[in-house]
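Protein: NEDD8-conjugating enzyme
Species: Musa troglodytarum
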Amino acid sequence: MPPTARTLSLVTQHCGGGVIAAFPCQKPVTIANIWHWVALNCKFLLCCSCIVVAVCHHLFAVPVPVAFRSRAMIKLFKIKDQKREDAANSNGRAPVKKQSAGELRLHKDISELNLPKSTIISFPNGKDDLLNFEISLRPDEGYYQGGTFHFTFHVSPSYPHEPPKVKCKTKVYHPNIDLEGNVCLNILREDWKPVLNINTVIYGLILLFTQPNEEDPLNHDAAAVLRDNPKLFETNVRRAIAGGYVGQIYFPRCM
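Structure follows.
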């Protein structure tokens, strides 16, 4: 006689909320055979703590090993994600884009930014494109006080194992930034480490404007003036950010 619904319910509760599965009677009733059958036919049940197996009208509580549950849960999440993507696509929405490990790390870095009020981050392509963004900074001290300087960031999907590529959009008279916008900052080159983040890079850029470094120049003329005649360097910087010529080179106003 088959077990009643109440009997199944009581046994299921006793086994920690397990699930009923009916084992075919024609097979030899051994734990090995039961597990082989469950693995083939009831994979979706393996995320349970216990399976109640009905064999020839008798109930057997079979505990599910933790290893099986872990693998089953991971598989279950993947199936749910795939179904969610398929449902979104069938509704006419754009396919769900999977984020790379670099994008996930970048998302974390950006969410944890702690910037001064004079520094602003923006996403010209929208926040769906985290790999390309811009930073505007306005130094509140030093030679470049009062100027506004814009930088583009391009981040590789292999971030943080590669540093971001940073360029200055603002033409600036600076020993560590050349006229093409290339930036000389050690943590963007040989001193980059995966433990560094976007916040570190931005503060490195701010430091370039408060403490320009004539020892590691890209603009050698500006570096020589800073080293030999700091007063003239200050005059040149003020002229450049106000909009004017320094020697034969014109700098647009950036105040």
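Remarks: The chain has seven helices and nine strands.
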